[in-house]
Amino acid sequence: MKTLIVGMGVIGTIYGWALSEAGVDITHIVRKGKKAKFENGIAVDVYDLREGYPESQNTLYQPKIIEEASPEDGFELIIVATKHYQAIEAIRELKDIIPSATFLMFTANWEGPQEIDKLLPRSQYLWGYAASTGGYSGDLLVANIAKGFHLGELDGTRMKRLEAIIEMFNKAHIKADLKLNIIEWLWIHYAISAGLIGTALYAGGLKEMFTSPDIERLMVPAVQDALHVLEKRGVDITQYPDAEPFLKQPPEITTKNYRHTFIETTWGKRALDTGHFKNNPEEMQQFYLEVLETGEKLGVSMPYLSSFKSKILVSCP
Known about the structure:
Number of domains: 2
Structural class: alpha/beta
Number of strands: 12
């Protein structure tokens, strides 16, 4: 499947490298004047959880890059792994140039698919979400490669294009975790992230959250507040396994498991050192604020999530 990835962001670059290594025809499109920045390739420090791959390696990704697409390029799939506002811009630019391509939205979502619906018929796009993580340390891309990723049609069906994407990622030994309701799952993920991020921002950082027992105890009820916002939206949060640690498990077990992941594992340590929370706190703050503001509009009681607001707005203006 000939694939175009929008930009050279962290997630797009990580999957571009992994898929290219597996023999998939991958090209990245960047803004005019940006191609030269990558002419010497990108150094990648890989920590890999896939079976049959070396756990650690340092490599050089030399991607195929274009600054302008044309109908003759023959792209079948366009992966949009960007911030939300950049995704809308990319769709507007490419939908008429490559009219037969399927768009795989590889972005978070909190507001639903309405904006995309205005630009594309649902027969032309579907949604996914990365499980791999990473970030830059200087010019070095530090990449954590997961065994899977999340994927789903908006109506929960298994169309031919979905199967083709599954097969493509399978070549790189990255298995699709299929969601019957991908938008609701994205909301669940967003809400959980908002509670975790809100607590961490209040603490002054992820490491600080897990080294302060008094603040750490706020994490589970903050996530519960965020999940109640989804209940008000009409989402049955009990149907999503991702929410179970915050609904059915003793809070001390949930916090212990998250502390272990972020503080004690190689994956978590690398994510702490180079991930979005460290490199883009403004974007992290937005997760928290969007869920909080939605809850306020819906009249949801959010005692824990709301209590973080004044300190977060002062520390992250």
